[in-house]
Amino acid sequence: MARQRQILALCVSALLGILLLLRHHLRDLSEVARTYATFYPHLAHHPETLHRYRPANNPPTPRHEIELAPAIIHQIFLTEGRDAPLAKYEAGITSCQAVNPDWTHYLWTDGNATTFVAAHYPEILPHYEGYKQSIQRANILRYALLDHFGGVYLDLDITCLQPLDDLRLLSFVTPGAYPAGVNNAFILSRPHHGFLQHLLDGVESRDLLWGMPYIENMLSTGCMFFSNRWMSYVRSLSAHSGDEERVFILADQTGDIEPHMLRGKVTTPLFTHGGASSWHGWDAAAIVMIGKHYYYFAAFLGCVFSLAVLSIRRCTKSRPVVSRRWRRSMDKTGDSEALVGVKER
């Protein structure tokens, strides 16, 4: 029994040690689960979060007398990790300038991007420079640019189909994401919006190593980080929060957010999205495969767990104990030896 207790104590100590080391990772995964579980119920209880977009030829009734978001388009081209030259995206860039002729356009590259972060967000700079992937820097950069300048951020593989002027009446708007949450390929915001400040406040604590590039990007700076912080922000809003602090999601006139989702190669009422996903690697493909065949994966994990439990039970199974009133003696019978118990007197 003593050996069994020692093995059990060792297993419990090892489990507690692992949980302690991975506590921040488990926090982030729990946030993902909470986002998936509460995103659509939140929209059902707060339909005012949906901006029911109408084309420019039938403009909506203004929410404000002034435009909250400045007429600035930000786009980012960081060379590290990119195979395609900037020329590949010129048609999309030109389209957005053509349908928004009075807007200022900024293209941020490796040099001016790092200079900007160092000058205005020095507390984020160590994380910005320390990220292993260029897409992580591009994600954090877009949030910082919109916080500082305001305006619109657009991915380079987006082609603009409609002017964005009507949306400037909103304080913050993004498309929805699949299967839940919000997408960061298109963001419109006023400067210093409360959500962007909340987002940037989470950069340090979410800068974790995950061992898989896709997951590391998604949870440290990408769409899941963006969505998790979005959900925590909207939960913090009170019923009396003004439109300047609220966040909106693009929807059609029926309140459906799917027509505006920038998911893969798709055309929405506002954009054509190329779905480049140039940063996706082997782990992204693996996650997609697991998602398509999750039942096989769940069965595999179940088998592994069952084998682990059986192994632990075998290791901790108690052996028969010989009474102290008996002593062991070796009797030799012929050419073989036998262990016999001889009762002590």
From TrEMBL:
GO cellular component: membrane
GO molecular function: mannosyltransferase activity
Keywords: Membrane, Signal, Transferase, Transmembrane, Transmembrane helix
Keyword Transferase included in the entry's annotation: yes
Signal sequence annotation: 1-17
Record's keyword annotation contains Nuclease: no
GO biological process: mannosyl-inositol phosphorylceramide biosynthetic process
TM helices/strands, residue ranges: 294-312
Protein family: Belongs to the glycosyltransferase 32 family.
Protein name, entry field: Glycosyltransferase family 32 protein
